[in-house]
Amino acid sequence: MSSPPRYCYRHPDRETGLSCSECGRPICYECMTPAAVGLRCPDHSGKPQGVRRVATAAARATGARGSALPNAVTLALIGVNVLVYAAELAAGGSVNGTDNTIYVHGVLVNDAVYADGTPAGVAHGEWWRLITSAFLHYGPLHLGMNMLSLYFAGSILEQAVGRWRYVLLYLVSGLAGAAGALYWTPHGFTVGASGAIFGVLGALLVLERRGNIATGGQVAGLIVLNLVITLAYRSQISVGGHVGGLVGGLLLMLAFVRFLRSWELSLAAAALVAAAAVIVAYASI
User: Fold this and answer.
1) What are the angstrom distances between the C-alpha of 179 and each of 75, 132, 156, 198, 231?
2) Is residue 194 annotated as a catalytic residue, yes or no?
3) How far apart (Å, rounded) are the C-alpha atoms in residues 276 and 226?
4) Can 142 be counted among the known catalytic residues?
5) 161/57 same-domain check
6) Active-site residue among 155, 242, 266, 284?
7) Is residue 53 part of a domain?
8) CATH classification at residue 224
9) 1 lies in a domain?
10) Which of 55, 96, 237, 279 sits in a 20 to 30 Å window from 243, CA-based?
11) Catalytic-labelled residue, pool 19, 21, 194, 284
């Protein structure tokens, strides 16, 4: 049974998956302070590592419930991607997953034709491809690499910003990545979750630069490394998809930080970034 969402003890409107390692109370990423071991709430951020306050029974119980499955959404997203690939195989697709009806109707393409000569692609009104393409992959290696990246990066972000903001950022980043792919290669075929994953990395970069997560600059280094690889293999990797997803994640995370106290404004910011992505996609067809 999944645990109910938790909310920061200082900001009851902010969902979070983080807990103070001293007292067990839930804290949002604005309230947390990285420590040598775990995270600290504002009440304990100034205490030496060896000093511990006895937590109340209620705080301990809350922490225990929230730690049951803190990356549930990340695992669910991985499950959806894997299930889609399995469905492609079940539909008669090859290992590379490009010759089945799920791929044919879901791959990101601007202008193409179906086998019967019917027009296909975003230019012909098939806008769902901007999202469905983010859940398709070119075979098990492509799928495995993306899901491994999603597990490590997504699990951190989910705990930092809460489930719903995380879902919003993931989907909007995927949409922004699709828009970037159409802009960069309007005549190409694109699939993969990497645009959304780059968006997650962009969000983590914002938190890293603000000091909300202690990573020693690893997120920035990882982004640079992946961009170098992207450019080096640009004939095989969607440059526009990666850059578009990264920009989408950066922008939306900056908005989340700005409008953290208001779920409505966070939702509006997500809608604005998504709308901008759709406009870019429209201008590319």
Assistant:
1) 26, 13, 26, 14, 18
2) yes
3) 25
4) no
5) no
6) 242
7) yes
8) 1.20.1540.10
9) no
10) 96
11) 194
